[in-house]
Amino acid sequence: MNALSVPSQIVYIVDDDAAVRDALALLLRSAGLSVATFPSARDFLARVTPRDSGCLLLDIRMPGMSGIDLQVEMHKRHIELPVIFLTGLGDVPLVVKAMKAGAADFIQKPLEGHRLVAAVTQALQEDARRPRAEGQAGDHSPDDRLASLSRREQQVLQEMLRGRQSREIAETLCISIKTIEFHRANIREKLGATNMADLFRLVFKQE
After folding, report:
1. What is the pTM assigned to this prediction?
2. What is the DSSP string of 30-70?
3. Over the stretch 42-99, which tens digit does the pLDDT of each residue have?
């Protein structure tokens, strides 16, 4: 099934590791997506313009211009492609910085194929509706939405932001996994968040 929302959309991959680029390109093309790969941030900037449509898979750590540096330069050039960062386990501070700067999502290495395709599909859909996406988060301010969480929901949210799964959170808070899933669903609904990237942006924007 072709997951593209617009025929001209391209998934851009920027990673200095050729093996990673090739593996990602093969996976995404097998899902019916158009792909363009680049070994460096500067090669990507030499090709892409504000008129291009799609999304960007971007390694957060690269020699020369890093993923974070590229994100900053894209803003300067008004290149508004949704960015999905590829990160390592020790990259939490960089992920927070990327989320504050508007990244669409982040995926930890080693990558899971189904998780990656799902994130890319969502980013392409976000890109397709970008001109009318502003203001869809709801009428309440982020402060109001965070304040609407119960004490237990706030505890669950903090554990989620640490990257913990439902089973780990349940063990930490001494409650059932089913209850954790219930709280997670309530948190997403109250905050208007569809994924972890939304939660990062909402929470860390307040700091």
Report:
1. 0.62
2. HTT--EEEESSHHHHHHH--TT--EEEEEES--SSS-HHHH
3. 999 999 988 899 999 999 889 999 999 999 999 888 898 999 998 876 677 777 777 7
Q: CA 107: distance to chain centroid? A: 7
CA distance 107 to 123: 13
Mapped onto helix, strand or coil, the DSSP state of residue 162 is: coil
| DSSP reduced 3-state for 206 | coil
More confident residue, 157 or 90: 157
Cβ neighbors of 148 (< 8 A, separation 6 or more) are: 140, 190
CA atoms lying within 13 Å on the CB side of residue 68: 13
The rounded distance, in Å, linking the Cα atoms of 77 and 89 is 30
Output the CA torsion 150→151→156→161 (10° steps). Answer: 100
Burial class (CB in 10 A: 0-12, 13-18, 19+), 200: buried
Query: pLDDT > 70: what percent of the chain?
Result: 87
